[in-house]
Amino acid sequence: MSIIEDSPLTAAVWPQDEEVPDAPPQMMRRLGELKVLRARIHAGPSPKATEAQHAKGKLTARERLELLFDGGEFTEVEPFRRHRATGFGLEDKRHYTDGVIVGWGPVHGRTVFAYAHDFRVFGGALGEAHAQKIHKIMDLAASAGAPIVGLCDGAGARIQEGVTALAGYGGIFQRNVRNSGVIPQISVIMGPCAGGAAYSPALTDFVFMVRGTSQMFITGPDVIQAVTGEAISQDALGGADAHAATSGVAHFAYDDEETCLEEVRFLLSLLPSNNRELPPATPSSDPAGRRTDALLDIVPVDANQAYDMRAVIEEIVDDGESFEVHQEWAHSVICALARLDGQVVGIVANQPAALAGVLDIKSSEKAARFVQLCDAFNIPLVTLVDVPGFLPGVDQEHGGIIRHGAKLLYAYCNATVPRIQVILRKAYGGAYIVMDSRSIGADISLAWPANEIAVMGAEAAANVVFRRQIAQAEDPAVTRQQLVKEYKAELMHPYYAAERGLVDDVIDPGETRSRLVDALAVLRRKDTQLPRRKHGNQPQ
Questions:
Q1: How much is the pTM?
Q2: Catalytic annotation, pick one of 127, 154, 191, 195
Q3: From CA 508, how far away is CA 469, in angstroms rounded?
Q4: How far is 204 from 182, CA to CA, in rounded Å?
Q5: Strand arrangement, sheet containing 252-254
Q6: Which entry of 145, 181, 430, 510 is annotated as an active-site residue?
Q7: By C-alpha distance, which of 388, 333, 386 is closest to 362?
Q8: Could you give the percent of the chain with pLDDT greater than 70?
Q9: Beta partners for 126?
Q10: 301 Cβ neighbours under 8 A, 6+ residues apart
Q11: Distance between CA 387 and CA 427 in Å, rounded?
Q12: Helices (H), strands (E): how many in the chain?
């Protein structure tokens, strides 16, 4: 008996305007069955299930894959996979694909692997067969040296399959870690992602979320209320804005799936396929030697006056275009991918418009992970410095600012990619050292003529160094101002660090872009070997 009941074999299978293959009747029957079966698999479990997905404001898994890949071109593997579980009625529900679609296709002409949960089948819940499909595509991505994108829209572990479902997650986590720093891993949360399922996105390089339809949490609102008495909605607990602005779990948040997937495509265009390749270069129409005189107006000479560092980045990079990571979280530091003369660079910059650009617990973590990512995937680092120090406070000290700040220090010291530091204005204390100073391995350090590099600001330094003199003076205020002036002239003039070889050159701000382009060209073939070791013990 045919595996497809009432299968039409010729006219209904082969449209009138399509040439009927010249094959024996028995093969014709098999080809007809295959064509019908594929059509049913692509259609999904039922029109009602598709309508329900659309009613939630969500696309189906296949619609998402069409948007992700060039022209919707996608090669699917294991579409006929079905679970083998029994009990709890599962033996009567053996849908093809088992709730996840896996395969590969081109994104901007380069191969990318993907898996997409199909919420219409078992709510996208993960069972044994479902997990094995994801394991296979992750292994294929690693073997091929190509990025993998997970389109997550699932209800967690398939409860009816018990511990085998949990073991399936373990296999995913193991591969996430094994592939970390080897191939880019991107998670796109497009529906629920709860319980153990949330740990896989947390292990990947980037997490995208969609407002209103995606949520991530370990324990849901009902459990939280039962245990702690706290009442909260799913979106407030684990929605896109909660994770983009509060927890820092999500790197990007968008209003709709179409925009989200287009931005995933753009991010992939900036990343290499694997850690053995350089990021893809593109021809640039923005002159490499273009002057950046607008920076003279953007950045005030007064070190206490705020400005938006994004305007500086926009002036320096190709066509003013950058892709900021974690834009809504830890605002006092900016991390962004951009191009300089067509070459991809990672930019880490203090943001004087937020907390005066200080480093705190969150900004240290944010910058540290970004530096590690750039180093893993051969992306040169440009660090724009205007930092007054680490944020003081009891909460910061008790929250572990020492170990969190050490993460950023560790990341820079461990990075072997080309590293260029530009000091725009102030660079005080330990924060100066941590922001990729020459002393921790920056290849090139440049400074603007108004830079101030010192242990601390002149006012604070005078209070410490000249405390007795000021206290004993007839006019302490006048004496204090005089001593502050002397301290600045002696230790904080723009050429103090340059005289001691800690700054390679003091440059005209209008030359910033051209000097960066030139330095990156010189360092492109940089080859630094770390000591042989299993791995370092990064601060936690």
A1: 0.91
A2: 195
A3: 38
A4: 11
A5: 75-77, 100-107, 110-117, 148-152, 185-189, 206-210, 252-254
A6: 430
A7: 333
A8: 91
A9: 157
A10: 425, 450
A11: 5
A12: 21, 17
How many whole angstroms separate alpha carbon 216 and alpha carbon 239?
7
Q: Are 374 and 381 in contact (CB under 8 A)?
A: yes
Token pair 């896996």: residue: 102
Compute the distance between CA of residue 449 and CA of residue 431 in angstroms, rounded to an integer. Answer: 20
- Kind and range of the H or E element at 401? helix 401-414
- The answer to whether 28 touches 9, Cβ cutoff 8 Å, is yes
Separation of alpha carbons 167 and 131, rounded Å: 9
Identify the DSSP state of 123: G
**Region for 72 from its dihedrals, namely left if φ exceeds 0, alpha if ψ lies in -120 to 50, beta otherwise:** left
b/e per residue, 343-356, with b = 16+ CB within 10 A? bbbbbbbbbbbbbb
Of 433, 389, 436, 397, nearest in space to 417 by CA:
436
Alpha-carbon distances, residue 171 vs 168, 178, 275 (angstroms): 5, 11, 22
* Choice between 493 and 36, residue whose per-residue pLDDT is larger: 36
Residue 293 amino acid letter: D
Q: Is 442 left (phi over 0), alpha (psi -120 to 50) or beta?
A: beta
pLDDT tens for residues 251-304? 999 999 999 999 999 999 999 999 999 999 999 999 999 999 999 999 999 888
In tens, the pLDDT along 418-428 reads 999 999 999 99
- For residues 338 and 336, give the distance between their C-alpha atoms in angstroms, rounded to a whole number: 6
Catalytic residue among 125, 141, 411, 431: 431
How many angstroms separate the CA atoms of 492 and 483, rounded? 13
The half-sphere exposure of 34 on its side-chain side, counting CA atoms within 13 A, is 6
Q: Quick check: is 430 catalytic?
A: yes
pLDDT at 87 over 70: no
CA 360/CA 391 separation, integer angstroms? 5
**Which secondary structure element, helix H or strand E, spans residue 340, and what is its range?**
strand 333-340
Choose, from 162, 171, 181, 196, the residue flagged as catalytic.
196
Q: Where are the beta strands (DSSP E) in 18-165?
A: 75-77, 100-107, 110-117, 148-152
Whether 196 is catalytic: yes
The sign of the torsion formed by the CA atoms of 38, 258, 153, 362 equals: positive
> Is-catalytic flag, 431?
yes
Residue 80: what pLDDT? 85
